[in-house]
Specification:
By secondary structure, the chain is mainly alpha-helical. It contains five helices and two strands; from the N terminus they run ααβααβα. It has a domain of 62 residues. Keywords: Mitochondrion, Ribonucleoprotein, Ribosomal protein, Transit peptide.
């Protein structure tokens, strides 16, 4: 037989209602912002845009694929996923930085991209 005082203590402790206030955030928007760059012009990409996807506009896609700038296999992937995105990487940012600091009145600079 269970003592009546024990049952009363359980009822008192378990009848309490606890609540917390939680701010609901839009997870989809935060996830999109975390891996896509908002910069529409690739010339303006910098270290802040590293490891983020740049979505290529449709008119630029047509020009790139028309003149053979990207492989046909990539074109098939673009068709499958219905978007053309390119990862912004450190070597590209480095070359763009060099080009921005280049004095075009001087003889031509030559850049060698080494992948280690």
């Amino acid at each position: 037989m269970i003592p009546d005082s024990f049952v009363r203590r359980i009822r008192e402790t378990h009848d309490r209602k606890f609540s917390t206030a939680v701010e609901v955030k839009d997870e989809q928007t935060s996830q999109i912002c975390s891996f896509r760059t908002a910069e529409n012009n690739p010339v303006n990409h910098n270290a802040d845009h590293l490891a983020r996807l740049y979505t290529v506009p449709i008119d630029t896609q047509q020009q790139i694929f028309q003149y053979g700038g990207l492989p046909k296999v990539f074109m098939k992937q673009v068709t499958t996923f219905q978007e053309c995105s390119i990862l912004v990487r450190q070597p590209a940012i480095e070359i763009m930085t060099y080009l921005n600091h280049t004095d075009y009145t001087r003889p031509v600079n030559k850049y060698v991209l080494c992948i280690l």
